[in-house]
Specification:
37% helix; alpha/beta; 2 domains; Aspartate Aminotransferase, domain 2; 13 helices; binds pyridoxal-5'-phosphate; 7-stranded mixed beta sheet; 4-stranded antiparallel beta sheet; Aspartate Aminotransferase, domain 1; globular
Length: 427
Amino acid sequence: MTFENTIEFAQRLDAQDKLNKYQDEFIFPKVNDKKVIYFTGNSLGLQPKRTKAYVDEVMEDWANLAVEGHFYAEKPWWDYHERFANPLSKVVGALPSEVTVMNTLTVNLHLLMVSFYRPTKTRYKIICEEKAFPSDQYMFQSQVHSHGYKTEDAIVEIKRRDGEHNIRTEDVLAKIEEVGDELALVLIGGVNYYTGQVFDMKTITAAGHKAGAYVGWDLAHAAGNIKMELHDWNVDFAAWCSYKYMNSGPGNASGCFVHDKHHQDADLPRFAGWWGHNKERRFKMEPTFDPVHGADGWQISNLPILSLAPYLASVEMFDEIGMDSIVEKRDLITSYLEFILQEIDKEVDSTFEIITPSSPVERASQLSVLLHGEGRSLFDFLMENGVITDWREPNVIRLAPVPLYTSFADIYEFGQILKRGILQVEK
Ligand SMILES: *Cc1c(COP(=O)(O)O)cnc(C)c1O
């Protein structure tokens, strides 16, 4: 498609967009009395209008039924999480029994590492990406320490090549082969939070297994953003937060995936709690742990229903729409954003650079822009003019046009604001 930098062209794309109507399903903050252009759905998704009813329902049930709500609410709390299995499994490409919801992301990765990071004297290394999200770095360090290893020895980072912004798949594969028999676990962010790079999860998972390691993925920026086939790719485990592309609200519950080949493995250690215990016998208060077969068997505590309610609203919305439509619009709108950035760059003779891969298979909703000249003051200008984006040190703004609520007209308009901003800041 040949793009044009005009409002008429953008409006034509909006008119053809099957997801356009979903914008009305979200609540947008306002700046200067105008609804914002929201590019930070990769950090905290907007609130869907339908969410409040899900939360209100739990509040009402609690008020009217109190403890009886566990069993007699319309959506009983004791198995509330089971409502996620079907729709959520479709979001990540899993069997319903392979997904569950519980806790929060870093907590879940720690718990999954109890099962899947089983270092021995000779096989104890973890491969991760260079400059992983800080929480993941702290997690790796504390995990290897808790097993008595040293960071420098046990954590192997895959580096970017000099002058390159992204990690090459061939370098990941080479590192896996190099670490070989010492490799216990590969755990990488499926979509890099900083650059938006999408990793080839299928190929990397197969390579990790060939080396004899477990392979897990942090899907914080992948869930609801890219299409995955976790089951078919033979991924061992994964976890994601629900408040980024999945719009569940600040700090809300995380999703987990555990491959079904591990469900019956009684030797796999795990930290247990009563909510992972045999469902029919849970309230018999027996002393011996008998895990539920499936990802639910990794649950520990009874679930925070008020945190699950907004997530359920969101998961049902994703089920209604389907990942295919999301991916289709995502690729078009991201390409349009890329085009607009390049046009504005030409018009104002600026010096910014898109560091996200240009190939559509290696990127998703996010474009990260490295500002060589304009810097922080341009970011401030955008925020004051109703473009909500985020700033990452040393000089990067991340722009995530979210297929569910960003319009093509938003992208055009963003270009105009950006242009004014660059001209003004330069003065
Ligand atoms: C957002 C994000 C997190 C956040 O972790 P929480 O435990 O939910 O606070 C972790 N890892 C990655 C890669 C992220 O992008």
